[in-house]
Sequence to fold (208 residues):
Amino acid sequence: MLCAFAVIASAQGISNKWCNTDGSWCVQSLYQSSTKVISFAVSSTGTGWTAFGIGSGMSNANIMVGWTGPNSVPIVSERVATQHIMPVPVNTPVILAQNQSTALWSAFPVISNHTTRFVVGRFVSVVSKQSKNVTVGLANYMWAFSNTKVLTPASVSSNFTKHSNKGVFTFDFTADISAASVNTTTDTPIVSSVSLKSTKYDNWFVSM
Fold:
C-alpha cells in the first residue's frame, strides 16, 4: 500500500487550490481520476497546528491535524469528532503522511509565509467506520489553525488547545479547473467558479 501511494501520487493529475480570504490557510490537492487517489498539501501561518476536515461541522467530522514534531518532522493525526469536543485519533488511519524527503512533498509549491505544513495521500473511497470518503464533486470541508503548540509534539495522539482561526467552505477538489482559474504557484487567495461558503463555528475545539 505504501509503495503504491508513492508511485501513484507522483503521476500527473488534476490540481486545485483553495485559500481562506486572507491567505492564512490554504489547501492544495492532486487528484488522479484513473486510480482514485487524492493528495492534499495543507499549510497555514499558524505556529501551533493546522487542520483540514471533511464535513461542515464537528459532528461526525473526519479531520486531519498536522504540526511540526521533533527534528522538524511533520506529524499528522487523522481524527474523528462526534460533537464540539476534542477530536480523537481514528483506530485505523486511511491517510499516508509524507515527509520532506518524498517526491509528493516536493510536488506542491511551498507558500512562503506559511509556517506549518503537512502533506498526505489517500484513496478517495475507503472502507472505514470512522474515515469519510472524499466526494467526487462539490462537497463541504473545514479548516482551522492555532498559534499554540500541541501538548506532546512527538505523539500523534497529542491533545491541543482551541483554534486561533477557523471556517468552512464548499469546493470540488476533483474538478479540472487548474488550467483556467487556479494558479498553484502563488499564495493569492483563490475564489474559483464553484460556490464557496465562509460561515464560522464558534466552538470548533474545546480549550484544554
